[in-house]
Hints:
Elements: H1 3-29, H2 33-45, H3 48-51, H4 59-67, H5 72-117, H6 120-130, H7 137-147, H8 150-156, H9 176-193, H10 220-229, H11 231-234, H12 240-243, H13 246-270, H14 275-292, H15 294-302, E1 305-308, E2 320-327, H16 342-365, E3 368-372, H17 376-387, E4 393-396, H18 401-408, E5 413-415, E6 432-438, E7 441-447, E8 458-462, H19 464-467, E9 468-473, E10 485-486, E11 489-495, H20 500-509, H21 512-515, H22 520-525, E12 527-540, E13 546-551
Helix pairs in contact: 1-2, 1-5, 4-5, 5-6, 5-7, 5-9, 7-9, 9-10, 10-13, 14-16
Amino acid sequence: MTKKTADDIRDYAMQGFRVYQDLIHAAGTRRDLESVRFTFDAFNGSFERFLERPAADNAAILALQMEGVDSDEERAVLQGRLATARTLQAVADSFNAAKRQIAFMLTAKFLEQLLQDDDPASRDIYEFLTRHLPQGLAELTHTFKSVSDRDADDDWGWHWWDFNPDGRVHNVDSTSRPNRLFVVRSLQILADLGEQVALPALPHDEDLVWLFDENNGTGVPAMVKDVQAQWDKYSKVLSTAALAQADQLLGLLAESKKAQEAEREKRLIESPLSPQKVAAFKENVVSAVQKESNVRALASRLGIYCDRTSERPGKDVPSWGYNQLDDKGAFIDDWHVSFSGWGEAYGRGMAQTEQQRFLGDIVKGAGLNATVKGGIVSTIEKHFKASHFEKPIILHSLTHTFEFSEIGQNKLFVPKYSAECPRTILTGLDGYSGVLRLGGADVPVFSIFAQAAELRNKVIIAEMQKYIRWNQFSPADENGEDGDILDFVYIKVADLNADNVRREKLLTDNPAWLHEKADKEGFLRAHTVVNVYEKLSFEIANANSAICLSVVSKRRGELE
């Protein structure tokens, strides 16, 4: 049997299972026990030949037989039979899993119905269906986990059970129903085990951690406490002996969660860094810097960006960037948490640093500084005429619409979105606002966001090509670092489980943030050190080519 044939059979069967499920649900809703029994028995026996394979087609037996075969011809025959057996077994496993899911959710539905109306027919339907549930805690937990998956709800349409065609809005609770049945059946199973039997451990799984978390208001522990608080309601289906197992069940849930967290930590520590994820991280860092740094694009457009990455000034030019502890999960394969956009976050931070450093240097380096307490445009025009700049632009860090409105609403200003706005050297750049028409010239206006208070509400009139140079150097400080350089950025991700030197140094230094960790070494082994930095400097070529105006806020009467 080919995989395509098996997939076709599986798809066909699942459609049939969905029809059986909906028929059983409809009959149960009508309290029609006989129809529930008849339809469920037909459903349970459907595709039986795929579920009960003869011993000759058993994959495990065929695999053992292949170990003792010397003939290539016989081995080829057995390989063909083994491939078919495994395909059929996969189909059978999917059928059994689907049937367990449907039985579980139908039982959960009619448990809810019984608790609401206490109708004898509802009780009969519920008790009939419970006989088809897993009888052990481990099997019950595995089925519960599978029905709690969002994809299962979408596949089987369980959420449609809560919709009524009454023209009203209805809230769909996708968690209470399976949680309630899991708790009720677990308590019953624990009561049946009795005190003489050692309690079985619940399976642990990544998907169960949040379901079993006591801080999850819609999780299983919350449902256990709900059962305890509403004993009169649940006494319809639970004995006093079963209710007495509530604390035991809470303990098993906590132990399962703790075991999974320990396994997660162990896997996190032992997993190697994924070369593909590290490479993607690096590429995303650099692309984000280039995309998000509007002053880098501005410098390139103006021709003041000097690529000197072939030069290695070493520590004479300081490095700017990150040296920080980071979650190792971002850099290993098949981790349960998504770290989408992790590299972009670093890149945006680098871009913001570039903007602040660039703005700080052009503000500080200006040859003329003045304060503006009103009439921003007229003040700009006065200084513009006096400067005799040939190719000036206006940079500003006005923080609010109110501050910028004196420019934006002035008749001399043409916003970039206006059809009358002429093309300039800055057209199309992120941050470009439009032009101020001063002395017959169209002067481009460019906005830079200022994080530091002392850099806000500045207006700089400058002939940038004569004023400043952006020097971009190689970020390498030492020999051997070239392999960690991508374009103009040094990026290194060090696994502290594998890098003994770095880990031991951190343990020896024992920084304040490490004091509070009970297992300092284990904590470090589960993390990485991420270094991301660049080397750049801004060289003022002619201070007299820039004028900086500090605008006093009209609303506060002080610098923003």
